[in-house]
Amino acid sequence: MMIKSYDFDWNVVASNFPRLLEGLGMTIQITLIVIVLSMVLAVPVALARMSQIDVVRWIAQGYIELFRCTPLLVQLFWVYYALPTLTGITIPGFVSAVIALTANLTAFMAEALRSGFQAVPVEQIEAGKMLRLTSWQRVRYIIIPQAVRQQLPVILSLNISLFKDTALVSTIAVADLMFTANKIASESYRALEILTTAALMYFVIAFPVSLILSRIERNMMNQGPSGGSTGPSALSRMVPGMRVKASA
Q1: Which of 118, 214, 220, 196 has the alpha carbon at shortest distance from 160?
Q2: pLDDT tens digit string along 162-184?
Q3: How far apart are CA 71 and CA 171, in angstroms?
């Protein structure tokens, strides 16, 4: 059985590279917007997830599980096609992509932050009380910075996954890198060269971040545990309406 040889033509990549860069710029733009929005929204969702008020806790948990347990592609399609049916408002593809990706990443980010909140040592929270910081000042200046630092490897990993998942927005006609690559491939009939280049462009962005992530994880392992933590009960006492189970 003979395998047909393929004549590569990389000139099509060179001639269309500016278009691919424009698509990459759109991908990076979506990624950065979603990361910023998710980091902000994940904090109240994580706090609500630990609330003493059952209804608040159930709503937050339901939101998290809904977006963690359904495919991102379905979420994109629902926002782009179904949400306008409910609201009567046409939502552009770019806005739909940002809404769906933000809702999805916020759910995962909230769980990561919740774990970080529970690990903050009680002594540091008590020190904040001694300094007469209000509950929300302690959350802002003591709880959140340490939670983010501790969960930084998880947060970076989620952000890398988000960057790769943005390729799905091409299905709702957002002119990201994948959409542009598919369009060029259909025009030039050179899918192998174009899609290979697109894959390499994703790799060039994601791989350095993954190296940074590995370095951070090694540094955290070398530092070792910071000692026992009674953070959950402290956070529960600090913020009104919050409940966190103490670990055994």
Answers
A1: 214
A2: 999 999 999 998 999 999 999 99
A3: 14
